[in-house]
Design brief:
369 residues; alpha/beta; Alkaline Phosphatase, subunit A; Gyrase A, domain 2; 30% helix; globular
Amino acid sequence: MRKIPDDLVVPDYESSIIGIPNWIMKNFGIEEIHKPLNLPIGFEKIVLVIIDALGYRNFEMLNLEKNFPEPLIVTSTFPSTTTTALTSIFTGALPAEHGMLGFILFLKEYGFLTNMIELSPFGYGRDLLKDRMDFSLPVETIFQILSEHGLNSASLIPSIYTKSGLSKMLHSGSQIVGYTSIGDMLVKLTDLSKEDFHLITAYVPYVDKTGHVESEEAYLEEASVVLMALERRIKEISKNAAILITADHGMIRTPREREIWWSPEDEIMEYLDMPPAGERRMMHLYSRDPNSLIDYLEEKYGKFGVFLKREEALDLFGGYHKRIGDVILAALENFSFNFRYRKEEISLSGMHGGLSDIEMLVPVFFFGR
């Protein structure tokens, strides 16, 4: 049995972002699915703001601590990526329960590799799974659960995402409201907090987008702008609701000289049955001979990653799911493993999905009485 290095952070599902929706259920007197966060309850209204890719270590670099209360520090999911973590935040379920186990997944029931943001296989338009195959989650969203108890929800997301299949799936049971800028979001968030909604969520993607393609300075500046803008509205919104500000995961800088690139023509394919799935910092690898694959990986890439057989990795996902690869790759330090699915694959300046403390530790700021 291979051991995960001590300097990596494995998800603690007793103290993770999964505790946020379970705390919301507890607050409204609904039986939780998993352990809730240890926060006060009894609020008539809750506002949840999710800043994509602003982990705790990232926040520490901003020098804004004096403006925010001491956060709870919890872990993200594994992989520490948007599709997995947001689904857990919006359902209260473990990754192994909801099955959204990475950005790219091999969906055995359909027989193809799928981009889980676009909900389509490579080369097709967006939302093929939703539009033609009625793809859905096997668990309810927090919004559906609240609705069954007579409680209303609203979800603020960028207007460009309001009609996407993923947004409709993750926000099922909620009234989706689009926004065009941070200023527009804050005005709408304030207005919604005064209306007849019990839960209002706001998803902010801009820090993540900047971190993937721009410098660390630009990423931190974007995070500072978002947090300072939120701070100006907290006092007014908190008159009507308890507020949680959190993230889905963090963002680690990944220099080009530490990128490992594979393609369908490379030697690795001799050990694989199909291209890898997952993330650049975490991969699902598929092989009929996982032992030989791991031996090859440890010999060639042992300094750059940890390689686990499926049964050795189940706790990372919270249990078994058919979409988990035969071998799980988790990148070490700030290395990344990249696969050329298409000619247009590019380098990214920042990534997430792995088990570093930068990616895995998430702050939860609570504003309530």
